[in-house]
Amino acid sequence: MATALTRLPDDRLSELLDGYRAAARGPRRRALAVALCIAAFTLLAGHVAEVDLPRLWEHAGAFFGYFDRITALESGGGRVWTDPAEWFWGWQKWGLLLADTLLIAYVGTALGALGGFLLSFCAAANLVPNRWLRGTARRFLEFCRTVPDIVFALIFVIAFGLGPVPGVLAIAIHSMGALGKLFSEVVENIDMKPVEGASAAGASWPAMVRFAALPQVLPNFTSYALLRFEVNVRQASVLGFVGAGGIGQDLIEAIRKFYYNDVAAILLLIILTVMLIDLGTERLRHRLIGALESRA
Amino acid sequence: MSQPISLRDAALADLAGIAARHPDTFRVLHPSRLRAAALGVGAIVLLIFGLWRLEFSPARLIDGFGQLIHFLGLMLPPDPGTWSRTLLIFRGLAETLAIAFLGTLGAAILAFPLGFLAARNTSVGRVVHFLSRRMLDSVRGIDALIWALIWVSVVGLGPFAGVLAILTSDIGTFGKLFSEAIEAADRKPVEGVTASGGGKLHGIRFGVLPAVLPVMAGHVLYMFESNTRSSTIIGIVGAGGIGLMLSEMIRTLEWGVVSFIVLLILLAVAAIDAVSGRLRAALAGRR
Fold it and tell me: Does residue B90 share a domain with residue B50?
């Protein structure tokens, strides 16, 4: 079934090729300009950030060597996975710390979602006609989500003392900022007819929110809060670096004191936990969205 | 004014009749509502258990918030102190931006081929597809701060370790985003290229790339925004940028400097957001 395609005559072909080149020239020139800009920025940034490629080349072996070291049994002989009992010698302690980390993430997310929930209705343009109240709520939320949670944790550790309390509060405040923004966007996109109906029937502001706005936004809110919980589990695992509770404290100690096998064990535990939580919340969110679509 | 009241009265007068006609609405405990209530109670119980387990106590909270208010008073007005320190702070900010820029760019370049390997329609085989997916997942599971710690012990203290940390942690994110963009791309241009005699690579270059490049550029800009935030804190573990200064000032209780640095970070992040938001809008418009 092979069919020989005839080649176009040369003059016809060159006409087409010229057309293609002319069409491609403009975008190509623009791409070149962008690339030059990026290259200039890269050189400048490389200078500021003290990028030293020869040093990286020299130490690249050390990077992979690090993973080699953390997976080699310290008592000599073989890899860590040949002797799980020795590798995970501290599994009871780490398990508890991991549970604490999850709890920190949960309590932080719950408190943050609560705060964001209350503030989102104040920050939504369609429910709050007062510009000053709305502006204040929005600026406050912006501040809470722009300052990184670990900075809050650093400050709170000094105010509240070491332990999980500053970690929970830091996560709560940061989540409040992030969730408050998302929530208020959801609220601004609701169908306004139930709101008008409730107002027309004489509902007060809280009653209007409860019966007209809330049923529309609750599934979306839950979905966002679950997504935030995923992020917060990651965050809670490193908050211990500054003394704010969770497994991070043990991890940074293990890294700083060169307990290589412990580093490998804790990292593996964190990765597995994060993956499990991701899978679990993804399932839940799909079910939520499915329930939402079947109702619609 | 009297109309709604009479409607209400009418409804109340016939309450028993309405309840008989709509039994489902008037059931005190609807099954779906019961499940929601159980979930809510479970969530609250877990919350209370968490508060207890994590050693929350009213005395501690009151004490802590008192301290915080005291600190807030000391934070005003923001004051960097000496000129030399101001210079140091601005240098830290420049480092932070450089770290974010280089880290994002490097991660995007390295993740570009990985994205094609991890996308179902352009990968070279099921095994490669699966392995690259799992690798990207585990890279993503480790926070940038942990990568920073590891890189500091490899290349030493300084912003270079920060660049490498942002780069490594973002490869995972970019790989996932890129592969999703590639999988969502329209198949028809590829079929067109194949029909006119192009190979698989031609199909990717002329069929997939033009469609996904603007999407990818949007993701890169968005990650640059998010990385300016994460590179402000990476200095806490000694990987360069403004975070080192910030954590030191917090630990030595120089609250005026702390508020100055936080203000500076807020301004820088807002500026970057505005610029990249514009660029992203332009990209979306051109598509």
Answer: no
What total of structural domains would you count in chain B? 2
Same domain? For B102 and B192 the reply is: yes
Looking at residue B155, which CATH number applies to its domain?
A: 1.10.3720.10
Kindly report whether the peptide bond that precedes residue B77 is cis, defined as omega within 30 degrees of 0: yes
Nearest CA in chain B to A239: B145
pLDDT per residue as tens digits for the range B50-69: 888 888 888 888 888 888 88
Together in a domain, B112 and B221: yes
Which residues in B lie closer than 8 A to residue A55 (C-beta atoms)? Answer: 155-156, 160
Residue B98: its chain A contacts at CB < 8 A? 44-46, 48-49
Give the residue from B50, B29, B78 showing the smallest Cα distance to A236: B50
The verdict on a CB contact (< 8 Å) between B266 and A45 is no
Task: Say if residues A262 and A252 touch (Cβ distance below 8 Å).
Answer: no
To the nearest whole Å, the CA of A100 is away from the closest chain B CA by 8
B183 and B127 share a domain?
A: yes
Residue A103 has pLDDT above 90, yes or no: yes
Specify the 3-state DSSP secondary structure of A5. Answer: coil
Domain count, chain A: 1
Whether the per-residue pLDDT at A295 is higher than 60: the answer is no
Q: Does B53 touch chain A (CB under 8 A)?
A: yes
Q: What contacts A195, CB < 8 A, 6 or more positions away?
A: A126, A127, A208, A212, A213
Cα Rg of chain B (Å, integer)? 28
pLDDT, tens only, A234-290: 889 889 888 888 898 888 888 888 888 888 888 888 888 888 888 888 888 888 777
- Closest approach of chain A CAs to the CA of B124, in angstroms? 26
Contacts of A104 in chain B (CB under 8 A): 50, 54
CATH code for position A134: 1.10.3720.10
Q: Based on the domain organization, do B109 and B202 belong to the same domain? A: yes
Q: Could you tell me if B196 and B251 lie in one domain? A: yes
